[in-house]
Design brief:
FAD-bd_PCMH_sub2; Uridine Diphospho-n-acetylenolpyruvylglucosamine Reductase, domain 3; 19 helices; FAD-binding oxidoreductase; oxidoreductase activity; FAD-bd_PCMH-like_sf; alpha+beta; FAD; 6-stranded antiparallel sheet; binds flavin-adenine dinucleotide
Length: 587
Amino acid sequence: MADKALNRSGQSLDQSLHDHLWGYRDTRFRLNERGVVELTGHRYDMSGTEMPLFWPFVQDILGHEIDPTDLKSPNAAPVVPEPRPCPEFRRAVETVLAKDRVSDNAKVRLNHSHGQTSNWELYQVIYENLERVADLVVWPESTEEAKQLIQLAGQHGVCLVPYGGGTNVSNALLLSPAETRPIVSVDMSRMNRVLSIDETNQTACVQAGITGSELERALRAEGWIVGHEPDSMELSTLGGWISTNASGMKKNRYGNIEQIVEKVTLISPRGEITHHDSAPRRSAGIQPRDLVFGSEGNLGLITEAVVNIHRIPEETRYASYVFPDFPRGVDFMLRLQRSGVVPASVRLVDNLQFRFSQALKPEATGLKAVEQTIQRTALEKLYRFDLRNISAATVVMEGSRSEVSHQARHIKSLAKSFRGVAGGSENGKRGYMLTYAIAYIRDFLAPYYISGETYETSTTWDNIHNVVDSVKQAALDLHAKHNLYGNPFISARITQVYHSGVCIYFTHGFSNRGLENPLEVFIDIEHGIREAILAADGSISHHHGVGKLRQRYLDRVMTSTSRSMLRELKHSADPDNVFGIGNGAFG
Ligand SMILES: Cc1cc2nc3c(=O)[nH]c(=O)nc-3n(C[C@H](O)[C@H](O)[C@H](O)COP(=O)(O)OP(=O)(O)OC[C@H]3O[C@@H](n4cnc5c(N)ncnc54)[C@H](O)[C@@H]3O)c2cc1C
């Protein structure tokens, strides 16, 4: 199959999406007339349902009442600085790109000047103002156009910033006020074609601006999948995944992005960075390809990649297990990893995260209510679990029917040996799918003066509890330090398992009511938590990347020689710093 084009309109913004907040306009959590939380729209399994436990849960955990009528007002008239003029560049660009693929509209420019870092850029864009905004936005459609664009930027002294889905959570798209050149955001969304499928070698050549949902839709229509499913897959793009070193929920079966991508093309101001052959592995010295992973917009435009594809699995089966406590759940995860029979996805939530997901359940009625009461009673009376201690694992198994059946039997018996009690496939599926709706909760709670942020890290198996305990303690200490209302919400999940360790994902919520200088406090909290992670020997990031948010810690994880080598490599590919976004080692 060749050239599977997907429809995207010209320069206008995608009207189905929120301007700055997460996700689709048809979907949002809201308190309805009866004071009950509901999710609007029809997009997700939980859309259209009421969640009567959620509002009381939030107040209970945060330890204070929330007045539903007292809402923080967003900045109704954001100030968007006038664009810095670049008339010659613009004239030249309009000979390459059709006029409707070049825009200096203020709203369009603002939308292209931030990612999704909650307590920093998103807070600024909603409640304050961004200091620096892109001056122009352009939409290339092909590698050839991208090359010409880069050449023109070099000639006219313009700074280019690649824009994928704008979903990064590392301030990677935050623009520096110190950048005096005109900044041009290069929106890759029109480069969203599956160019070809190689059925024999099971690969597809794909343009880098394709989103995860577009990619899966296009491939599924032909009987294939990639299987890369980051929680942001509806909006994040192939180019974004490569440049941030992304990780998908089903990495155990399909790999992280660096295993999925066989070949990648990046256009730098000095030319193409790629390799010519299509072999699955090569011993050809240091691979320039590897520099593209994690390049965070610093080196050039990723225009296309060859990715591994797989036949749509015969079966996808979900399961869930409840464990008496988090340590028992961790022991189960380790044994599962060691057993070698690891399902596509297995994730473990701590007690608070478990209760959070329970609070998002619709009200059970009739038989369902009876069933839930029996389950709860059985856990407490029969299995002697303390509901304030239990943890839960959700499992996704994918493959042939026999493979899935084998995994299911194995996981069930292993869970049992750690006192795991089966929670059913419905709960497993719910836990997996919940992840797509959860992103909207941050934006629901923000107007009630509740800040939400996530932190992720990786660490070795023997250090999990140290990292988790350190972060939880840091959240408490920071809460006290800044004299915040009530209590913090701080939960932990293990979202990925590896031979030698895991990825740990934290969700942090706290009240920002009464703060005179919220942004300063958020920044201090962000740094306090990251300090705690690093001091406990967690990594700087498992998959969110460095961007500008974690830049200040790079010296602690990278020698100055490594950093200067990277800078010199960048200089050789981009001597005039056309790609001057200044992320990671290049800030
Ligand atoms: C709700 C939510 C859930 C998330 N879940 C996950 C998850 O499960 N796993 C995970 O790994 N991450 C996750 N993330 C983070 C984010 O989705 C990833 O970092 C993603 O890879 C960013 O892709 P993007 O297309 O949105 O890139 P953008 O945010 O647009 O850009 C990120 C960086 O990449 C550069 N870039 C983008 N496209 C190109 C290109 N074509 N060429 C060169 N540079 C480019 C940009 O300049 C920027 O520096 C999540 C984020 C949110 C908000």
